[in-house]
């Protein structure tokens, strides 16, 4: 399970890298617009996940600042990793 979470985090990190590259050096044609929309959607969804998780469990689980912000970057895969660390 730990290896799969690491692999998923690497994949999401690659997606974020492509989205950030598109901001500074837009891809040609309509691809740039599609990637802008995807970046906004991904940021909003992961941000919502982070706010919901911290609101629901922030006082019950001691998380580091990195763990809180990793939810914004990696989404559900960070949540699975946090659950695995804090449930043991």
Automatic annotation (TrEMBL):
InterPro entries the UniProt entry points to? DUF1145 (IPR009525)
Signal sequence, start to end: none
Q: Name one Pfam family in it.
A: DUF1145
Give the highest taxon in the source lineage.
Answer: Bacteria
- Asked if the Swiss-Prot or TrEMBL record annotates the protein with the keyword Oxidoreductase, the reply is no
**Keyword match Membrane:** yes
Q: Kindly state which keywords UniProt assigns to this record, in alphabetical order.
A: Membrane, Transmembrane, Transmembrane helix
Q: Where are the transmembrane segments?
A: 6-24, 31-54, 66-82
Protein name (Swiss-Prot/TrEMBL):
DUF1145 domain-containing protein
Q: Which species does the entry assign this protein to?
A: Photobacterium frigidiphilum
